[in-house]
Structures are given as structure tokens and as C-alpha cells.
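Here is an idea for our session: we take a single protein and study its fold together. To get us started, please write out a protein record for me. Start from the sequence, derive the C-alpha cells from it, and show both lines together. Go ahead whenever you are ready, and we will take it from there:
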Amino acid sequence: MPRNPWSDGPEFVTQCPIPAGTNFTQEINFSTEEGTLWWHAHSDWSRATVHGAIIVYPAHGTSYPYPKPYGEQTIVLASWFKADVMEVYQEAVASGAEFNTSDALTINGQPGALFDCSTGTTFRLPVKKGETYLLRIINAILNEEMFFGIAQHSLTVVGSDGFYTKPINTNYIMITPGQTMDVLVTANQPASYYYMAASPFSDSEAPFDNTTTTAILQYIGNQSAPSPIPLPTLPSTNDTTAASNFTTKFRSLASSDHPISVPKNITKHILMTVSVNLIFCPNDSCSGTSDGDRLAASLNNQSFVFPTTDILETYTRSNFSESTTDFLLEPPIYFNFTGDVNLIVYTRQGTKVIELEYGDVVELVYQGTIIGNAQNHPMHLHGFSFYLVGTGLGNFNNQTDPDNYNLIDPPEINTIQLPKNGWAAIRFVADNPGVFSISQSFGYLCV
């Protein structure tokens, strides 16, 4: 979205929420993206139902960096509730407790044949034997990271977040909320019916929707469905090795037709801890903990407070009336972030931003912590695509870990998976003026 922060969407960051009964036209400006992206609402949990795909095809006169597929299909993974989603959100915010989990997960709007309510309505993808199809997979699920596979079929990942990757041949993918992946599958098995399936990955003690959603890959012809229809063998829900083995395979295509430019001369270093902290509730009035406090996500022990006027507007008026520019560039205290420590940390609250100079070359290291409920977690940056140059377990060591960075062909993406009790390093050039969010709780960059 170069030079277009006004349509970025997060409420009270780039614009105020769109009032009920009115409309707003978003203006989307692409730069170098090619492949699958997605759009979604960005107010509370409205993205659970207000979302869709954005597909950027190769420019005229060019083609895919792989043989053109015979056909394509968008696959959207999403959450389904037996309740009003906004009421679920508001109840959790009011109580300070964990959010209620969804009642089912869906593929293109259907929970699948493992749910009685889906009988006869499971999504089906017809395929012609011998042909290759491009699946544009989007994880629009609110909270769960997902394993996805197709029974008896191999997958080849060729892109993510609107950028091409070196091909990854695999039997399953692991896709986090907010991510997109372009995946090739060839219909090279006996003509029949095969389940596509997605099941969650979770490595924490937090509640999650532990259900499996299915769809059917159906070969075109007169064959009848086998009984049972084969299911793919997916990793177990807590298989951290399977998750890591997949996510660490990503590399940029980095070809002459699709070059990359990895930032090298860093001018701004940011170390950002990612935690689930507590906020004190007077008279033990909240139900987030047994002590009556509230749960709160934080970055560098800072949890976001919504202003009454969006930050971009106040910035352009040069007053920053409700926000300050003292968001910490490093943790307020250093400790063994991922070690066996017994800490109860109350987070600070406020509306704070990090100011960057135009042209700053930024290295941002996300550091997971043991505070609260440690888990593998998606991290996302608005306004910029970035390079994931390194990731690892334990505490980030700024003396030794950069020696193992991939500065040759790191993936260029906009969403990453921060490993449980680990770290991830990203790099980008601050060349897109505006105010943009770093999504875990809320942190904001201002260029």
C-alpha cells in the first residue's frame, strides 16, 4: 500500500471505525506483490465474517515461474460460531478472560462431512485426472494455526503473502492466521474422492478449537464415492517438530525475473518482547485469573489503549493529542525470557508509537517470553512486506545469532510464526510514510 496509509483499515490507527449504516471505499495500491493476498475488516472481531481473497496475476507478457496450472481454486479457512461473533468478543473484553473458542472451522464456508450440520453441503473441488491445479489458501481463522493436506496427494508450495518462493514439496502445510499460500497439486491418483482437511496446531495450554474441517477433491467422472473417503494424515495438534520442519523451509525465489533486495546496513534496531500479561482490576472484578485480574497481550510490556481519534489523523495535525512517541525499542527489563522463571508481570497501558525516519533500515526482533501462556503465535506488520532473516529457540543473542541469518534468499512476506519460547528477526526499509500497526496486541510504527 505505498503512499496510501488512509485505507489501511485498523480502527483508530489509520482511520476511525466506519459507523453502522454508512460506507467507505478502500483504495488499494499494490507495488511488487504477485499471487494471493486477502482483505478483511479490522474492527474488533468483524474480520471473522468480513473477509475475502485478493488475487494478483502475472503482468501481461509474463507468466508464472512454474508451468501454468490447468485451473485454480481459492481455499478460505475460517471460524464458525453458534453465537454472534461480536457478542463473544465483547463478553471476553468485559470479563478480561479468555475468548470462547469457535464451534467449528470451515473450508469455503462449510465445516465439512465430520459435522452433521454439513451433510450434503461439504465444499467440493472437481479436478481432471492428470492436470495440475493452483490452490490459493488463506487462513482467515481468528486464532488457530492450521495443518492442511489432501489425502494421497503431494503438495508444492510456490508462494506466500503475494511473493513467490522456491518450491517446497510436502505432504502438509502449516499456515497461521493472516497468512496466504499458493500451493500446486496434481490430480495423479486413481479417479475417486479424496478429503482435503485442516486441523489446528497448538503448543500451549490455552483453549482452542480442536476440530477438523474437511472438503472433497473429486475427480471428474462417473465413479462413486468410496466408503470411507480417505482422509489425509496430518500432524498431531501439538507436533511442534512438524510445524517447525515446514515453516523453516521457506526461501524467496530470488531469480532474475523476481529479484529481492535484503536490507543490510541497519540504522534502527528494535527488540520486542511478546507476552500475555495482566492488568489489575479493582476489587478483583475481572475473571481473567483466579485473583480477579484481566489478561492483556503486550509488546515490550506495553498494551494498547484505543484513542478517540485515529493516530494518523492526529499525527497529520502535528499534535499526537492522545499518543506519545516513547514506545520502547527494547524490553523495559531483561531477564531469562524463555527460562524457568516465576514472574507475574502487570503490563503498562497507553497509546504509544515508534517514530522512524524515512529511509531507516530496520531490524525488528520479536522475542517470545514465558510470561502468561507461551505459544507459537502469528506476528504481522502493516504497511510493509519484510524479510524473515532468522528464527530460533531460546533468548535472542545479538552477538551470535545474526551470524546464522539468511541474507541470500530469505522469504519476503507480511506474516510470520513466532515460535514458542523463541525469536524471529525481520528486516525492512521504512519507505512508506504513515502509521502502521504491529499486530500481536497493538504496537504502532510511525514513518
